[in-house]
Design a protein that fits this description.
This protein is of the alpha/beta class. It folds into 2 domains: 168 residues, 3 Solenoid (UDP N-Acetylglucosamine Acyltransferase, domain 1); 81 residues, no CATH class. The protein is 41% helix and 13% strand. It has 7 helices and 15 strands. The strands form 3 sheets. The chain has a 6-stranded mixed beta sheet. It has a 5-stranded parallel beta sheet with strand order 1-4-7-10-13. The longest helix is centred in the last third of the chain and has 29 residues. It is elongated and about 80 Å long. It starts with a helix and ends in a 9-residue tail after the last helix. The C terminus is likely disordered.
């Protein structure tokens, strides 16, 4: 119990840069208060002290503005930022290292008993005002955008936005973005952090160019490997950096494009 308490406090420092001390968190953070009271209510709920558990959760709601049913299962290092208006239903299951912002609802879509609330995997972030409804599953590392309404399963590592929620980025897209950033850094170019969901034709063209460069690099490596396996000697010197400043200087030295040599 004490170990979990330490983890709950430490995760606040990791996810809220405004946190300054343990004393401040313990005394002024409603998300921490709600989580602490929920763990007590959850313990009572599964020991057949349901009324006392509900009374404790009602007290927590009155104190913090956060409503968590005592039957909800919450993992380790859970953080509710700001917290006002958060609602978590009875059969909701939340994994480790998850974060909810204010106004989030993990609710049901049926009056039938049984599993009727969402299940969140590990390291899930749900933005302010989002509604995740029904017995659906949000995969590990999932991201739900602010004010989104999600009623279908979300795969691992995906990002969901809008009403109704739609997937705008998958884990393979994140891998592709990381590869593009690596290529951009290699040639000294800043792709200004564009993402797939941003309808910028120039950004899309640049991303296609970066993908093409990556494919060419891979093909060149395979060709060099094949030539080397045949016994031929290959110049293995490191390629020079092609940052924008270096390209301009080289052009200026050659007197190309009207660029002054003083550059």
């Amino acid at each position: 119990m004490l170990q979990r308490l330490r983890e709950d406090i430490h995760c606040v420092f990791l996810r809220d840069p405004a946190a300054r001390s343990v004393f401040e968190i313990v005394t002024t953070y409603p998300g921490f208060h709600a989580l602490l009271l929920h763990r007590m209510a959850h313990w009572l709920w599964y020991r057949q002290w349901q009324w006392f558990a509900r009374a404790l959760s009602m007290f927590s709601r009155w104190m913090t503005g956060i409503e968590i049913h005592p039957g909800a299962t919450i993992g380790r290092r859970f953080f509710i930022d700001h917290g006002m208006g958060v609602v978590i239903g009875e059969t909701a299951v939340i994994g480790d290292d998850c974060t909810l912002y204010h106004g989030v609802t993990l609710g049901g879509t049926s009056w039938n008993k049984g599993k009727r609330h969402p299940t969140l995997g590990n390291d899930v972030v749900v933005g302010a005002g989002a509604k995740v409804l029904g017995p659906i599953h949000i995969g590990d590392g999932g991201r739900v955008g602010s004010n989104a309404v999600v009623m279908k399963d979300v795969p691992t590592g995906a990002t969901v936005v809008g009403i109704p929620g739609r997937i705008v980025r998958r884990s393979e897209d994140q891998e592709r973005e990381a590869r593009r950033r690596a290529i951009a850094e290699k040639i000294g170019f800043d792709a200004y952090g564009t993402a797939q969901e941003m309808p910028d034709p120039v950004a899309n063209a640049i991303n296609c160019m970066l993908d093409h460069i990556h494919a060419m690099d891979q093909q060149m490596e395979r060709m060099c490997g094949a030539i080397h396996s045949l016994g031929a000697e290959i110049d293995s010197r490191t390629l020079p950096t092609l940052g924008p400043c270096e390209v301009l200087r080289e052009s200026a030295e050659r007197g190309e494009s009207g660029i002054p040599k003083q550059l």
